[in-house]
């Protein structure tokens, strides 16, 4: 039976430190609890690379400088403890911006018979935008939780949520989505 899944994307320690505050993590944790209570699977997506960053080309504008900036020990960049996965929650590792790029997300979703993705994460102009576009191209129904996405640029965040995303997804506050569960 097809179903929806909540994707919690790039809500990792170092990313939260750069883009969000404690209220975002607390609100997202409430949404994760509501999804679990309604039987909606929660899938975590994290960006990570092997030691030495062999997946990163120096031509990659977003990630190309990472190996040079990260000389020495790699930081612990797991899912933020405020929204940590529970035992049995899938954690998908991606190698690029989209949750689908360099990951087994599509295979996992097919096996779970998921046909509707509910997106949350950091950043709206990064993982949320890229994942939404690819999910729409793969014929998933998509909902974006407008208040469970964060971006460094409030104007870009607003334009994406009000003008770009509605062409391919339903955009709604988390409490509205939770009332439908």
TrEMBL record:
<dbReference type="InterPro" id="IPR000868">
    <property type="entry name" value="Isochorismatase-like_dom"/>
</dbReference>
<dbReference type="InterPro" id="IPR050272">
    <property type="entry name" value="Isochorismatase-like_hydrls"/>
</dbReference>
<keyword id="KW-0378">Hydrolase</keyword>
<dbReference type="InterPro" id="IPR036380">
    <property type="entry name" value="Isochorismatase-like_sf"/>
</dbReference>
<dbReference type="GO" id="GO:0016787">
    <property type="term" value="F:hydrolase activity"/>
</dbReference>
<protein>
    <submittedName>
        <fullName>Putative isochorismatase</fullName>
    </submittedName>
</protein>
<feature type="domain" description="Isochorismatase-like">
    <location>
        <begin position="5"/>
        <end position="175"/>
    </location>
</feature>
<dbReference type="Pfam" id="PF00857">
    <property type="entry name" value="Isochorismatase"/>
</dbReference>
